[in-house]
Amino acid sequence: MYFAKEMLDAQKILEGLGHEALIPCDTHECIENPDLNMDMEHCMNTEIDLSCFNKVAESEAIVALNYPKNNIRGYVGGATLMEIGLARYLSKKIFLLYDPPAEEDLRYALEIKLTKPIILHGNLANIGIN
């Protein structure tokens, strides 16, 4: 949820392109209180993981907003990695906004690459051509 604001921006863009775009149920709350994403009580009470997994299952595809973070280009966090894994298992399309991170920068970069993500090269409109 580090990129909660960017999720709202992406949702608007995708909806403007004619897609239905689901985002985590606590996105607005995380913008108002960025510490919520690390608040175990909040995460347990909202069962945010199950909520997000259900959204993956309902969707045709997922888009990971893998902006740079912690000096890692194409960063993917643990929760997003789990959603990517679920999407792969459910045979959903997987889009990454940017190239996945290098294996020397993120120990599970290989696992991300194995899911065969479609790279959008920073442009959500590229979803329409894939």
Number of distinct helices? 6
**Average pLDDT, all residues:** 92
Tell me the count of domains. 1
Task: Give the termini separation.
Answer: 26 Å
| Total number of strands | 3
| Spatial shape | globular
Query: How much of the sequence is in beta strands?
Result: 5-15%
Structural class computed from helices and strand pairing: mainly alpha
Q: Could you give a short account of the major beta sheet?
A: 3 strands, parallel
Low-confidence stretches: none
Strand order of the largest sheet: 1-2-3
Helical content (DSSP H or I, runs of 4+):
40-55%
What is the string of helix and strand elements? Answer: HHHHEHEHE
Q: What integer value in Å does the Rg equal?
A: 14 Å
Write up this protein:
The mean pLDDT is 92. The radius of gyration is 14 Å and the shape is globular. The protein starts with a helix and ends in an 11-residue tail after the last strand. It is mainly alpha-helical and 130 residues long. It has one domain. It has a three-stranded parallel β-sheet, covered by helices on one side. The chain contains six helices and three strands, in the order ααααβαβαβ. Helix 4 runs parallel beside helix 5. The longest helix is centred in the N-terminal third of the chain and has 13 residues.
